[in-house]
Write a structure and sequence with these properties.
By secondary structure, the chain is α/β, with parallel strands linked by helices. The protein has two domains: 217 residues, Enolpyruvate transferase domain (UDP-n-acetylglucosamine1-carboxyvinyl-transferase, Chain); 207 residues, Enolpyruvate transferase domain (UDP-n-acetylglucosamine1-carboxyvinyl-transferase, Chain). 32% of the residues lie in helices and 25% in strands. The strands form six sheets. The protein has a four-stranded mixed sheet, with helices on both faces. The chain has a four-stranded mixed sheet with strand order 2-15-17-16. A hairpin with a 3-residue loop joins strand 20 and strand 21. The relative contact order is 0.15. The structure holds uridine-diphosphate-N-acetylglucosamine.
Length: 431
C-alpha cells in the first residue's frame, strides 16, 4: 500500500503551478456528453476523480481521447446507455452530475447513489427536488437513482440550502428544458460559474451564475466547444497554507487571486504576508503565527474544503483559536490523527474545534481519513520534527495532481513509498 514518508522541518520555498479546478472539471466532464459534437477541454487535472469520470463516459458509449496530460477531447455522439453503475463511480460524489447531464439531454438517467468523502450526511434531496420541479419522475431503487421525463419544462426552484452540487446538477438538467428556469438561493462558488460558462460555450443560455439567482432559457440543442477549466482554488489554498505552516515563502502561480480572497484574508490575520499579482499569489511566513477564529461558509466565505488546512496552521499559532464548521456535520475526524502529532484540539458538538496552539508538531504515523484532511496531515507532517508516515494516500490522490512532486520542488523531504524497505531507505537517506 502506498504511503507518503515525510521528514519535516524544511520551509517550503519557491514557485508552484496550480492545475485545473477538480470540482469544475468533474461537472464539465459530465456536461460534455450533452452535445453530439466534439468538446475539447484544456487544463483538465490528471487526478483519480477526473479519470473515474472519463471511464464512466466510456462505459456508456462516449469517446474520450487524451491529447496530452491536461487536454481531452470528448464526444457524446455514440452514448447509448443511460445507466452508470460502474463500481468506481460509487466512490465519487460527482457521479451525481451524470444525472443532470443525461436527464437534460436524453430525458433519462440511472446512476448509482453517489459516495465521496465521508464528511457527514450528504443527501441529494435538493437535486431530486429540482429535477422533479422540471417535470422528471425520480426514484431510488436498488441503490440507483433513476430519473426520467417525457419532456422537461422550465420551473422556478428555490434551493433550501446553498448546494454546489444541486445548483450545477439542476442547471444542467434545465439547459435543454422548454422555457425558462429560475434557481433561487443558488450556490455562488467559482466552479458554478465555470460550469455555466462551459455550458454557455456549448450554446446554453444561462445568466446570473455567481449570484444567488440563476436564470436559464432552454435551448433545443448544444454544439461543440473548446474550453479551459479555471484554476483550482483549493489546491492553491493548500499550498498557501503549506507555506504558512512551514514558515516558508511560496508563490502559487496560475491562480485567480479573487477566488482566494477569504484564504488570503485569514493568512493575513494569522501573521503571513500575502502579495497578489494578476495570476499569482505569494505567501511569506516570516513571523510567528497568531490565533484567529474562522467559520466555514459557502462562497465567498471561507471554504469548508480549506477547514482542515487552516486548523493545522492554527494548531501551531500562539493563543486559542476556534474553527466552526457550518457546511458539513462530520468534518473533524482527522483531529485524532493530528493529536498524534502533538496538536492540542478539542472538538465540541461535532462542529466546533477549540485549538490551543502548540510550538511544534512531532512526526507520527497517521492515516488520511479523506481528501482535504489527508492534504492537511501532509502539511502538518512537513512542519513536524522528525519523520511521519501518511497512510491511505489514495484519498489525497483523488484531488491533488503530483502532490508530493510539487511539494518536493518547493524543498519538502517527501517520498511516495510502497514497502517497508522503501520506507527504511527514506529513513536512512533523511537521517
Ligand atoms: C461540493 C464539493 C465539495 C465541497 C462542497 C461544499 C464536488 C464534487 N464536491 O460537494 O468538495 O466540500 O461542495 O463547497 O464539487 N445538501 C443537502 N441536500 C442536497 C445537497 C446538499 O442538504 O441535496 C447539504 C449538504 O449536506 C451540505 C451542504 O448542503 O451540508 C452543501 O453541500 P454541497 O454544496 O451540495 O456539497 P457537494 O456538492 O456534496
Amino acid at each position: 500500500m502506498e504511503q507518503y514518508a515525510i521528514k519535516g522541518g524544511n520551509p517550503l520555498v519557491g514557485e508552484v503551478e496550480i492545475g485545473g479546478a477538480k470540482n469544475a472539471a468533474l461537472a464539465i466532464l459530465a456536461a460534455s456528453i450533452m452535445t453530439d459534437e466534439t468538446v475539447l477541454i484544456e487544463n483538465m487535472p490528471d487526478i483519480r476523480d477526473t479519470n473515474v469520470m472519463m471511464h464512466a463516459i466510456e462505459s456508456i458509449g462516449g469517446s474520450v481521447e487524451k491529447l496530452d496530460r491536461h487536454t481531452v477531447k470528448i464526444s457524446g455522439k455514440s452514448v447509448r446507455n443511460m445507466a452508470i453503475e460502474d463500481d468506481s463511480v460509487k466512490k465519487i460524489r460527482a457521479s451525481y452530475y451524470f444525472l443532470g447531464a443525461m436527464l437534460g439531454k436524453y430525458k433519462r438517467a440511472q446512476v448509482t447513489l453517489p459516495g465521496g468523502c465521508n464528511i457527514g450526511l450528504r443527501p441529494i434531496d435538493q437535486h431530486i427536488k429540482g429535477f422533479r420541479a422540471l417535470g422528471a419522475d425520480v426514484r431510488i431503487e436498488h441503490g440507483l437513482v433513476i430519473a426520467e421525463a417525457a419532456h422537461l419544462h422550465g420551473s422556478h426552484i428555490y434551493m433550501d440550502v446553498s448546494s454546489v452540487g444541486a445548483t450545477i446538477d439542476v442547471m444542467m438538467a434545465a439547459v435543454m428544458a422548454d422555457g425558462q428556469t429560475i434557481i433561487e438561493n443558488a450556490a455562488k462558488e467559482p466552479h458554478v460559474v465555470d460550469v455555466a460558462n462551459f455550458l454557455n460555450s456549448l450554446g446554453a443560455v444561462i445568466k446570473g451564475a455567481g449570484t444567488d439567482v440563476i436564470r436559464i432559457r432552454g435551448v433545443r440543442r448544444l454544439h461543440g466547444t473548446e474550453y479551459a477549466i479555471i484554476p483550482d482554488q483549493i489546491e492553491a489554498g493548500t499550498f498557501m497554507f503549506a507555506a504558512a505552516v512551514t514558515k516558508g515563502d511560496v508563490t502559487v502561480k496560475n491562480v485567480i487571486p479573487k477566488h482566494l480572497e477569504s484564504i488570503s484574508a485569514k493568512l493575513n490575520e494569522i501573521g503571513c504576508e500575502v502579495e497578489e499579482s494578476d495570476d499569482a499569489v505569494r505567501v511569506v511566513a516570516a513571523k510567528p503565527l497568531t490565533h484567529t477564529h474562522v467559520k466555514t461558509l459557502p462562497y465567498p466565505g471561507f471554504p469548508t474544503d480549506m477547514q482542515p488546512q487552516i486548523t493545522v496552521a492554527l494548531g501551531l499559532s500562539r493563543g486559542t483559536s476556534i474553527v466552526t464548521e457550518s457546511v458539513f456535520e462530520n468534518r473533524f475526524k482527522y483531529v485524532d490523527e493530528l493529536t498524534r502529532m502533538g496538536a492540542s484540539i478539542k472538538v465540541e458538538g461535532g462542529n466546533t474545534a477549540i485549538i490551543d496552539g502548540v510550538n511544534r508538531y512531532t512526526g507520527a504515523s497517521v492515516s488520511a481519513p479523506d481528501l482535504r484532511a489527508g492534504a492537511a496531515l501532509v502539511i502538518a507532517a512537513l512542519s513536524a520534527e522528525g519523520i511521519s508516515v501518511i497512510d491511505d494516500i489514495k484519498f489525497i490522490e483523488r484531488g491533488y495532481e503530483d502532490f508530493h512532486i510539487k511539494l518536493k520542488s518547493l524543498g519538502a523531504q517527501i517520498e511516495k513509498v510502497d514497502s517497508e524497505r522503501e520506507l527504511q531507505k527514506f529513513r536512512l537517506k533523511t537521517g
